[in-house]
Amino acid sequence: MASPLFQLDQLRTLVAVVEAGSLSAGAPQVFLSASAVSEQLRKLEQQAGQSLLLRSKAGVQPTPAGQRLLAWGRQMLALNDEAYRDLHGVPLAGVLRLGVTDYFRPSELSGLLARLQARYPGVSLQVSVLKSGLIEAAYAAGELDVGITLRVTGAGSARTGQLLRREPLQWLAAPGWRPEPGQALRLLALPDSCSLHQFTVGLLQRRRVPYVVALQASGVAGLQSALAAGLGLACLNASAQAPGVQALAAPHGLPALPQAGFWVLPARSGETEFVRQARTLVLADLA
C-alpha cells in the first residue's frame, strides 16, 4: 500500500506547472528539467490514484481532482514557508496592496481579511474592492500588488494568471419571484462597465429573451438588497447569494448559465520577495 504522505516538492511542481501553463514553462520555476518535472507529476498522480492534469498542445489544465489537490497543495506549501520563517525568526512584514472583485465571497470577505490580518500581523493590508476591469487597470499601472478578478467560463476572456476558485452562476431572485409571462424580464445588475453585466445582457440578447435593466446597483450589496425586495432577478455567482435571495426554481425558461472563475492576475516581472511570499500565503487562505 502506498504511503499516504504527499511530497512537498511534488506539490510545488504541480503548482508551478499549472500556474505557468505547461511543463516546459513550469520546469525553470522549480529548477528542474522538463523530464524531471514529468516524472514528479507521474509519481504525484500515482500517489493521488487519479489523473491530475489534462495535457494538450495548448498546455495543461487541472482535472477536478487536480484542482482540489492544488488548493490543498497551496495551503501546505504556505504553511511550510511560514514555519520556516517562524523558526528562522524572519516574520513576513510589509505593505500589500490587494484588489478584490466585489463578487468574491461578499458575505465572507471581511471575515477572511480579518483572519489574514490576525495571522500575519506584520503585513499591512490595503484592500480595494472594485470591478474586475478597474482591478486589471490598476494592476497594469502598478497601483496594486495582487489582483483577484472574475471571468466567466467560455466568455472569451484570457486565461493568464492563477485560477483561485470556480463557482456556478445562478439566476437569483426573492423567494417566490417569477418572471411575468409576456412581460420583459426585469434584470438587476451592476453598471454596464461590469463584465458580468455585459455577459448577462449578451446572453439574453443572443437567446432573444426580452429584458429591461430595471435597476443598476453600485455594488453587490445594493444588488442583494434589491433582489431581496423583489424588484427583479440577477445573474450572480453562488457565493453572492444572500439572505432573502435564492436561486430561481426550475423550470424558469431562462438560458442555462456557465461557471465563473476567480483569477489571480499573473505576477509581474521583478516583483519583490515580500510580494511573492505574501501572494502565496494570502491566496492559500482565500481559496
Model regions low in confidence, pLDDT < 50 over at least 5 residues: none
The main sheet comes to: 7 strands, mixed
What order do the SSEs take from the amino end to the carboxyl end, as H and E?
A: HHHEEHEHEHEEEHEHEEEH
State the end-to-end distance: 31 Å
Beta-strand segment tally = 11
User: How many helices in DSSP terms?
Assistant: 9
Shape descriptor reads globular
Strand content: 15-25%
Helix content: 25-40%
Radius of gyration: 21 Å
Provide mean pLDDT, rounded: 87
Quaternary organisation of the protein chains: single chain
Q: What class, by secondary structure content?
A: alpha/beta
Short key terms for the protein model shown above:
alpha/beta, seven-stranded mixed sheet, two-stranded antiparallel ribbon, 39% helix, 287 residues, 23% strand, 9 helices
How is this structure best described in words?
Helix content is about 40%, strand content about 25%. The chain has about 290 residues and is an alpha/beta fold. The strands form three sheets. Strands 3, 4, 5, 6, 9, 10 and 11 form a seven-stranded mixed β-sheet that branches. Strands 1-2 form a two-stranded antiparallel ribbon. A hairpin with a 2-residue loop joins β1 and β2 (about 60). The longest helix has 24 residues, at about 65-85. The radius of gyration is 21 Å and the shape is globular. The protein starts with 7 loop residues before the first helix and ends with a helix.
